[in-house]
Protein: Cytochrome C
Organism: Thioclava sediminum
Amino acid sequence: MFRPVLAATVLICLSLPAAAETYKKVKTDAGGALFETSCMRCHSVDADKASYGPLLNGVVGRRAGTYQGYPYSEALKAAGFVWTPGALRAWMEDNDKFVPGTKMRHVGIEDPTVQDFIVTYLTSLN
Ligand code: HEC
């Protein structure tokens, strides 16, 4: 009676890291697909590809408005903060409110799950 329970517990514990990895991969893939539909028409994640918006490869941990050579709005240039997952979520939700005067058109992604997936995808590019 005790042994099967113990065996099951050990098995579950052993499979947890693998499950976490799978979950992360699913989130990253979903985030990539969402990025493609919501952000890719203006943003690239490939340094060789110019786009209307700044390159987002490596944006997590980067100071806002500092991707070299990109003509940012004065508002984003002066913003001074570093892009954290929380900042990215607030930006996706209401970029005009987060940095008044930005030239990025309002995207309005309010679903926290969608925000989370896109942040996971962007973080995976670091
Ligand atoms: C209609 C075009 C457009 C769409 C769609 C768009 N963006 Fe942007 N984005 C811009 C522009 C233009 C800027 C530069 C803003 C400025 O200089 O004020 C920008 C800036 C940014 C920045 C600041 C980067 C930095 O270097 O400081 C982030 C982060 C960002 N966008 C994320 C996103 C994400 C995530 C999505 C999709 C959910 C998205 N954007 C969708 C045009 C767009």
